[in-house]
Amino acid sequence: MGIDFVIEKFILVIALFAISLLIAMYSTYAERKVAAFLQDRLGPDRAGPFGILQPLADGVKMFMKEEIIPANANKWLFMVGPGLAMLCACIGTAVIPWGQDMMVGDRLVKLQVTDINVGLLYIFGVISLGVYGVMIGGWASNNKYSLLSAIRAASQNISYEIAMGLSIIALLLVTNSLSLREIVSQQHGWHWNVIYQPLGFLIFMVCAFAETNRAPFDLPECEAELNGGYHMEYSSMKLGFYLFAEYINMFVSSTVMAALYFGGYNYPGMDYMAGLLGPTWAPLFGTAIFFLKIFAFIFFFMWVRWTIPRFRYDQLMSLGWKALIPLAIANIVVTGIVIAIVNKF
Amino acid sequence: MESLSNKKKVLVSKPLNFAERMYLPAIASGLSTTIGHFFKKPATVKYPEQEREFSINWRGMHSLKRDEQGRERCTACGLCALSCPAEAITMIAAERKNDEKHLYREEKYASVYEINMLRCIFCGLCEEACPKEAIYLDGPIVPADYLRKDFIYGKDKLVEAPLEIK
Asked: How many CA atoms lie within 13 A of A306 on its CB side?
């Protein structure tokens, strides 16, 4: 471990950060375009060809807006809230293995910032931390709508984290490892975990929708009841941070789903491609496939948002506690029995 | 009571069955509906570049007409201003000089004629009131602008382009 190691990781971190922000930026654009296409409209098309400069225009608008901190707000926490939301959203991608080990010259580069052996727990912890940004922001605003929204967000996230954790336990029974690197490399070729854990994937995906506060579970920011919810008092780039953090969270969730259940950088016929492209380009091709899967999930997030209306709060809670948790437990039991039988024979 | 039209549809609210309580079949059918619209042609008309066809009785921007010899028809009688329910039209009349006979048809003409497009409701009553067939609402959509003063259209914008002399 020398200076070259530091440089390698530094480049990787910067690249990941830039890619996360870029994808979040263009997710806002894609969201509006997808919404438009699903509703037989055109979407933003004025800024640049096909409107591709729209995110820049939105960003400039956010920066130029007047910054207002309410007089009775807790100023320090009011400023910490969006920062925390953004921080938690950005550090999640650190443990994702983006590709197989790549040869650059005669150097073996790991396309992963860090391979901690409890990577899955790390991701889980970071996602859970994300709700603190919402809670702190909602509380510090000193506004009843914001507070209500923060309470909703907290109870929603706690409820769905249980089902999400239980669905992951069933996955762990299959993979025998908490390291994301290990989990992804086990899914070589087409041995994707979704084949062994379809129900677990379904539960995980529903919970991911709830954790990222996306429709149909976007109760913390529902406009009709809460006037925008926890970011009601926010303006300028602080509001921008909250909105941005939501899109980065969506990207991270899509990444985790693609890595855990849809094979990450693995694809059928990868051994043939590895022979064809060599040790430098084959891993990059795998990474491209990984990103394709991530984009497919992001598209699915948006597709669902523009299809399904928002749940009522009691429906949300009864779905979480009375449907998903029992299902997840049943999934663990069935998975355990099947694994016991398979190992016996 | 017996329905006469036979169009009445009696709604029964029965408890959801298992498939309905699972949400998933309904969600799948909803998703297939929306993705169907993804590939449909958008209904949007890209307005400034692309204009929708107007109907034949469309009422748009006003134009002050000229007669066959290219003279302005308006005689500043003020009937259009009187008929205007939105009080959008004002004018100042002037007497025609001897050397202006090729410019104005009547002995009296409007030296200033202004329509405030922010007041105008495009009802077309000025068109109906005009005894000289001088004003018609046959123009395009009145374009947007930034300042209120720019919406007061004078003769420079309203009078038809002079006939080309062949």
From this structure: 24
